[in-house]
Amino acid sequence: MPNDVIIDCDxxxxxxxxxxxxxxxxxxxxxxxxxxAGNQTLPKTTRNALxxxxxxxxxxxxxxxxxxxxxxxxxxxADHVHGESGLDGPELPDPEYEPIDEDAVDFIARTARECDGxxxxxxxxxTNIGLLLKRYPGIESDIDRIVLMGGGVYEGNITxxxxxxxxxxxxxxxxxxxxxxxxxxxxxxxxxxxxxxAAEFERFRSLDSDVGDVVADWLEFFLEFHREQxxxxxxxxxxxxxxxxxxDGVVETEPMHVTVETSSDHAxxxxxxxxxxxxxxxxxxDVGVDIDRDRFVDRLVDALENY
Length: 307
Ligand code: RIB
Ligand code: CA
Prior knowledge:
Blueprint: E1 3-9, H1 13-23, E2 28-35, H2 42-55, E3 63-65, H3 79-82, H4 104-114, E4 118-122, H5 127-135, E5 143-149, H6 164-168, H7 170-178, E6 183-186, H8 188-193, E7 196-197, H9 202-205, H10 210-230, E8 234-235, H11 238-248, E9 251-256, E10 258-260, E11 271-273, E12 285-291, H12 293-304
Parallel strand pairs: 1-2, 1-4, 2-3, 4-5, 5-6, 6-12
Antiparallel strand pairs: 7-8, 9-12, 10-11
The protein binds alpha-D-ribofuranose and calcium ion.
Alpha-D-ribofuranose (RIB) binds at residues 10, 12, 14-15, 38-39, 78, 123-124, 149, 157, 163-165, 238-239.
């Protein structure tokens, strides 16, 4: 029986690839896609989601637009990574449909109540999910699991201490880690271990399909930032790792207590992970510490082969 899932995203190159993977994962029933401001502004991330679903020929999947600003902070975008559109690189088809009228938070709540157990896969800032928990007290009982891409045990990316998704809205992230729902944190230690080297982009190009070519072009674009910033000759497809975790359990996790820093001069957004259990606070998340990289990449290529 497939898992009912909603993917909450801020496309973004890796978000878009995560959507394409999810839509070709038989273990998942994608009940909808919700969008949030993050990599780019909300109008841009929403358009990018619609374009990706149009490319996938899946305009049957509802898209609900969410929050345009973090809960209490000003928005930080990542145009230095994803470009002016948020999905720079190849030409994409214009969206063939519009978002639904219902906002993302209400859509998630309604869907959670309709499903017999919903898994949320947030791969952008957690603003929509934080507001869901505030706007719908008790909604936790209708959510099976939250598998989020975000955070890091030892490293950040947008700052030395913080990963981007958590950094943009740490207040929302704190609500998520404090919620009474099983949380899996697919953070930078897992996603960076699954980096796809530039030499392997050919596996996507050789699919000889529009989708394969677009993904290869997205990876080429995404590579430039990672070469300049980190000196890597490969890219972490962060968000697709969270989808692959729900579909195929590719991430190795350890239970830890995670606290999100929200009042620091230098470390706001840090996911402070009690790796050694030195506090008496019980774990509140299964935290990604490694990933089966080959299984992840093979699954991604196999999935994209179906377009
Ligand atoms: O830090 C990586 C995360 O931030 C990914 O989800 C990427 O899409 C951006 O949202
Ligand atoms: Ca993202």
